Amino acid sequence: MASSKPTEIGSSKMFEGFNKRYKHQSPTLGCSMNFHIYFPPSTSPDQRFPVLYWLSGLTCNDENFIIKSGAQRVASTEGIALIVPDTSPRGLNVEGEADSYDFGVGAGFYLNATVEKWKNWQMYDYIVKELPQLLSDNFPQLDTSRASISGHSMGGHGALTIYLKNLDKYKSVSAFAPIVNPINCPWGQKAFTNYLGDDKTAWEEYDATCLIKKFNDVAATIMIDQGDDDKFFHENQLLPNKFDEACRNVKAPLLLRMQPGYDHSYYFIASFIDDHIRHHAQALNPSRVGNSRI
């Protein structure tokens, strides 16, 4: 069953391009979903833009990144379209779906749930399969064959795991304060137990530190920024050192930048998002990139 044609529900001009918000009926998730696209300014009628998917963190929806990150400034000059989906199904009224901030609504963890109660939580398939097809079918100005992926916190977890399991689909990956070893942190253990059950081998399929051991033929350096004043870093929710060690063991290229004094917020993201956009521009538009190296 194909996704319904998206309906535009909002538009605002920014840096000569446009933020546009859409809604559509998702057969993968069984509910109506919203997403944003930032279209950079076009220089010719037949111009097609590569895409950068942004996956947001716990409690976020499709609006947070668009409003707070400032990513559009460099996306405009680099000619990259930003694709920002929501973080979970909404409006299904499953018992307990909104009882806590770190599970259920706003907390899809970008996996395919196997526990029956949460059968609609199929965010992995939504991001990897349904959304790219929807974009390809409805937006001829987007070149979905040139795609990269990024995200923050839970979304950084999603970006890394999706990238590593689909190295043929994405040119590059980056993340801000990602949950890189969820099988060993409280957030991941709670979510995985409820979505996937007690089989720990199933959990490893959504853990970047486990996946890098199997899928390490990466085309571009993995880029991660982590604030050293991030309370979740100090609470051992993020565990970047575990991922760093795993990458070293398989000689996977990782640029892990510890940023002194920064926390887990969008102030942190806005401070370094330009570097991330340019990192992806190198992979998506190599012929355009001149002095944009980090």
UniProtKB/TrEMBL annotation:
Originating species: Lactuca virosa
Protein name: S-formylglutathione hydrolase
Record InterPro entries: AB_hydrolase_fold (IPR029058), Esterase-like (IPR000801), S-formylglutathione_hydrol (IPR014186)
Compartments in which it is found: Cytoplasm
Lineage, top ranks: Eukaryota, Viridiplantae, Streptophyta, Embryophyta, Tracheophyta
Highest taxon, organism lineage: Eukaryota
Name of one Pfam family that matches: Esterase
Entry's family note: Belongs to the esterase D family.
Coiled-coil residues: none
